[in-house]
Amino acid sequence: MTHQEKRAWIMLVVSMAAYAAYAAIIVSRADGQPLPRVPYATVLLWTVGAAIGASIVAETALGVVNPRASRLKDARDRQIGQLGDYVGSSFVVIGATSAMLMAMAGWDRFWIANVIYLCFFLSAILGSITKIIAYRKTFPQW
Amino acid sequence: MKPTRVTNSIRSLRFAHGEMTQAELAERIGVTRQTVIAIEQGRYSPSLEMAFLIARVLKVPLDEVFHYPDPREE
Predict the structure, then answer these.
(1) Element (H, E) at B67
(2) CB of A10 within 8 A of CB of A55?
(3) How is residue B45 annotated by DSSP?
(4) A9-20: pLDDT as tens digits
(5) Closest chain A C-alpha to B68 CA, distance in angstroms
(6) Residue A87: its chain B contacts at CB < 8 A?
(7) Which of A12, A121, A131, A7 is nearest to A60 (CA)?
(8) How far is B35 from chain A (nearest CA, A)?
(9) What is the ipTM of this complex?
(10) With 70 as the cut, is the pLDDT of residue B22 above it?
(11) Do B66 and B53 meet the contact criterion of CB atoms below 8 Å apart?
(12) Rounded to the nearest 5°, which phi and psi values hold at B66?
């Protein structure tokens, strides 16, 4: 497994864990009241920060566990990286457009912030899965 | 999306060339071993420049390494 494929796996696992933790905390805090009344901002920032920190720790740990592993990034890695980023970026556009329309329609800030976070999460997941499939199966030819 | 129709003889040429390992070939052309594996298995089409590099390392012409099906033979 190349270093870039390991990074894609780390991104997938960390993103899923961070969003699952965020969703679980918000739902548990709701306790029957409407979701927009739940204080979400601190939890959101902490889970995003923790995900970034966990990714750095995981990548560092990989280097410590197997210091001889190659970190070479070649043309295939770059092409797969670009494909994953291209696929994942669609959700960033969907999130931004949704947030803009929701703001215009006067939706609560809770929903606007959460649709953006959800789309960031889906972008990371879809991008990572695309990269992993491209590494494991055939790189698509058009 | 469609799989590549390009086939190659890298594996047999490696063995004919002093049983060169995938890791050695990868190092000579500046890619990861996983990329050499993917090319050998037809899961990745290298760039033209990388294809020429592979042929040069294996000391054979390009068309001995990579093959494209002739439509008359299909």
Answers:
(1) strand B66-67
(2) yes
(3) P
(4) 999 999 999 999
(5) 15
(6) none
(7) A7
(8) 7
(9) 0.81
(10) yes
(11) no
(12) -115, 145
